[in-house]
Amino acid sequence: MDMIKPPAEMLFEAELRALREEDTGNRPPEWLLSPAYVRDFIIGRDKPAVVDGKEVAITRKFYGNDVLIERAVVTLAGNRGLMLVGDPGTAKTMLSELLSAAISGTSLNTIQGTAGTTEDMIKYSWNYAMLLDKGPSEAALVPAPLYNGMKQGIMTRFEEITRCPAEAQDSLISILSDKVMNIPELDGGVLFAKPGFNVIATANIRDKGVNEMSGALKRRFNFETIKPVSSMKMEAKIIENGARSLLMHSGVDAEIDLNVVELLATTFMELRSGITREGYKIDIPAASMSTAEAVSVYVQSAMTSYYYENKSISLDRLVQNMLGTIAKENEKDLSILKTYFSKVVKERSKEDVIWKDYYEERKWIG
What we know:
Helix content: 40-55%
Largest sheet: 5 strands, parallel
């Protein structure tokens, strides 16, 4: 079945199947893979797995702190929920999806937190026609992701939990503590969580207008902070892999230009960190200069060149699409980008052809 963005369990189906067949390690109850193999699925390994006599490469999907992955997996094997926090674009959602796919075989049991999220969207609601006709019954109950996770013994993902109202967040407290959901509308209605159930939540530490988690809820989670990529080489690799996947699923047959990838990775990392590779300090824009934004800029630029010029990515399209990212929160950030070009890019243009061509596109900044 064609789809724009397949879930992790479909995208990496061959890898997961090969790992399951090979895995003889100790598994927590109802887990499809042992913790060691969950780790290998996420960070990759050199040795391929073999299924039906064919070798299947186990690729790296998350670039960052490998020890953090081990801690996250062990947290989920225990009695506490896992909270992934960090700046926008640090792959928190992707990591929660990969963990769920590897452990439970599905990443679709998900609550998307918003200002309008209510308790019944998290736990359960009712089919009101059946409720009025026959009264409260299990048949009239409409399960939400938390109910499904407990009943089936699978991971429940809670995206952007701090965007939910405090009362919706706190509906998790007793469930994370006791692994029991009370259903007062049913006579003796109690749902006990099956082994394999746990909660993976994510929270963005930069968004405005979020609802601070209560101390009681925080104590039910182990927190792991996903930090921005600090290696230019790693950032370039993430942009390359992310752009290749998105372009392929968008039906765009375009080769990835590694020189442009490196240029983009360098620009984003320097503007994010406020220091150039030569050691000079520069101003940092208010906009999120995350790796995810860099992937988006490359993909948009490649698609623009593909559809309008029928050619591979061009630097003028790259700069044009970069403007939308930089000016997303504050138009004054454009002056920071302009200064970056007039000083950093200009200096490098004297010795490097691609930086020279890059500098010539400064006219689009205004």
